[in-house]
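Fill-in record for Methylcobamide--CoM methyltransferase.
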Amino acid sequence: MSKLNMKEWINEIIQKKEVVAMPIMTHPGIEMIGKTVRDAVTDGQVHYNAIKALSEKYPTAAATVIMDLTVEAEAFGAEIVFPENEVPSVVGRLLNDEEAIDKLEIPALNKGRVPQYLKANMLAAKTITDRPVFAGCIGPYSLAGRLYDMSEIMMLIYINPEAANSLLKKCSDFILRYCMALKATGVNGVVMAEPAAGLLSDEDCTQYSSVFIKEIVEKVQDDHFTVILHNCGNTGHCTKAMVATGAAAYHFGNKIDMVEALKEVPADALAMGNLDPVSLFKAATPEVMKKATLDLLEATRSYPNFVLSSGCLRLHGHWEQR
């Protein structure tokens, strides 16, 4: 699918009478092949097998890789813990002060598990040819928070904005290089997860997230590669900042009013969301899930650029009956 024109694909979705669905649900694929989350996030072949199994069973609008927001932080040197059946997480703090930011080096793309994720994307792009394949990466502000500590970075942008911008630039430079490498695998786009930016005001989100993302978008997005910006921290207060990035699609979390979000998204860009991955996908009965889905479809029926999706990554756990 590397030659698929993504602008045409987006336009076709908007022109369709039926709403298409693109849930972020790679973790159920891990269950389907009898592997653990730890297996999938450390082995590109297992990761790919999970994506492929899902694509063969469900007619989703696109295939997505695992949304693992620790890959880039690990490449920088952060310590990661790997529970058997939960997503990995960063522990501790890699950068303890502003001096550490100055000394921080941008890592090569052979660090940590980056090669395994590139492998999974390459295999998926080669063999899943009936729909687009979307890679995943973290956003610059969320990465900075994982390296410097989330509470500390929120204070740093006010105490020492110069140091904060220095860190964000290094994070952004690495993400750009990673996105270019992902693009080279043949995938059709990337879902960039920037949830921490939802903790900021619209003005700060623009200054400390969107301006950096916009630079990445301008360098990687083209007719054959789409950037989907995900921000599940946005409750409606920073949609304007998200749209300022120029991404071709926006993915929203379950805390936002989807109709209000759609009002701010350009008519020629996709707006995706936002069924709750916990209370619905993981915990609800099939009847409750169906009603919530139909209610969301009814509420958004006047917006042809709406794409039905989960509000965030689908948690590991029993799910198929839903």
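KEY FINDING: Residues 315-322 have pLDDT under 50 and may be disordered.
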